[in-house]
Amino acid sequence: MVVKRIAVRVPATTANLGPGFDALGMSLKLYNRIELEEIEKEQLLVEVEGEGAALLPRDDSNLAVRAIASLFRRIGYRPAGLRLRLYNEIPLASGLGSSAAAIAGGLVAANALAGNPLSRQEILDQAVALEGHPDNVAAALLGGVVIVVQDGTFYSCTRLQVPRNVKITAVVPDFRLSTKAAREVLPEFVPLKDAVYNLGRAALLVAALREGNWDLLGVAMQDRLHQPYRCRLVPGLNDIFAIARKEGAYGAALSGAGPTVIAFSPPECEVGEAIRGAFLARGIEARVLNLEPELEGTHLIC
Ligand SMILES: Nc1ncnc2c1ncn2[C@@H]1O[C@H](COP(=O)(O)OP(=O)(O)O)[C@@H](O)[C@H]1O
Ligand SMILES: N[C@@H](CCOP(=O)(O)O)C(=O)O
């Protein structure tokens, strides 16, 4: 018998946006739905539909289950049994924040099931501890664009609303790249001139996003801190950025840790097909997703 049932909608995210490595994240209108039921029988049932259905574990090693269990541990809540249903639209290990969504969605659902004992800030702290970096979990939880500052274990988030009059295209190549692997290729130190290169662009990007001044994105989305190192993991990445600009995109970047490429463009621009063609030319199938900025973040739907 079902004791209580919660359903949550959690958005995808695109982190970094070019120069904002580990500092900027934006939520997108592409969602996973998480349904969590407390049941009388002492067991854990996990069902998965959509993205990752063939891959994701159905036991307590599942990331959403781990997030739920960590929240219950923290507040001392002991349900008899749990049934978790995951309806996934966010591609796995593709740079669109699937792990952040599993964590944010799991935590918000668990908190609601337990009667909402934790504040949004406490949930965010726990999400950051589980994910390891705040940019995409903060965007998934809060919605909009988040600017994150951090120093060791300290971090804080500032949220921006983003004008919606821009087309956002994600081109998702048909291979997975774990964020862990894509972080391992990054150097421990970067040249001062590269840090300076990114500083100005990240500041310009925030101004551009705030004002909807999309023409600035061509310069504002350039990066020298992570993409030059990650480009060997994503065949043709530099050519793809050039193709996106030639097709009329305002700017393009690796989404999160990749391999998805995200492009911002005027509504009539068909940049997605051009990027897909560039992947295909290298023997890689890819999907084009037409998306929009999302402003609500993770929320209960019943
Ligand atoms: N809906 C989901 N439910 C449970 N775990 C998930 C889900 N989506 C992703 N994960 C976990 O997150 C991993 C991918 O995380 P990561 O490498 O950070 O890529 P991404 O860029 O998609 O966040 C998956 O291999 C899986 O372990
Ligand atoms: N700043 C992180 C963002 C990872 O995002 P994901 O969506 O790929 O998990 C990084 O660039 O490593």
From TrEMBL:
It comes from the Bacteria. The keyword Nucleotide-binding applies. It holds the Pfam family GHMP_kinases_N. It is an enzyme of class 2 (transferase). Transmembrane segments: none annotated. Residues 62-144 form the GHMP kinase N-terminal domain. Residues 206-275 form the GHMP kinase C-terminal domain. It catalyses: L-homoserine + ATP = O-phospho-L-homoserine + ADP + H(+). InterPro entries: GHMP_kinase_C_dom, GHMP_kinase_C_sf, GHMP_kinase_N_dom, GHMP_knse_ATP-bd_CS, Homoserine_kinase, Ribosomal_Su5_D2-typ_SF, Ribsml_uS5_D2-typ_fold_subgr. Keywords: Amino-acid biosynthesis, ATP-binding, Cytoplasm, Kinase, Nucleotide-binding, Threonine biosynthesis, Transferase. Its EC number is 2.7.1.39. Its main location: cytoplasm. One of its GO terms (molecular function) is homoserine kinase activity. GO terms for biological process: threonine biosynthetic process. SUPFAM superfamilies: GHMP Kinase, C-terminal domain, Ribosomal protein S5 domain 2-like. Gene3D superfamilies: 3.30.230.10, GHMP kinase, C-terminal domain (3.30.70.890). Pathway: Amino-acid biosynthesis; L-threonine biosynthesis; L-threonine from L-aspartate: step 4/5. The keyword Iron-sulfur does not apply. GO terms for cellular component: cytoplasm. ATP binds at residues 91-101. It is found in: Cytoplasm. Belongs to the GHMP kinase family. Homoserine kinase subfamily. Catalyzes the ATP-dependent phosphorylation of L-homoserine to L-homoserine phosphate. This is Homoserine kinase. It comes from Thermacetogenium phaeum (strain ATCC BAA-254 / DSM 26808 / PB). The gene is thrB.
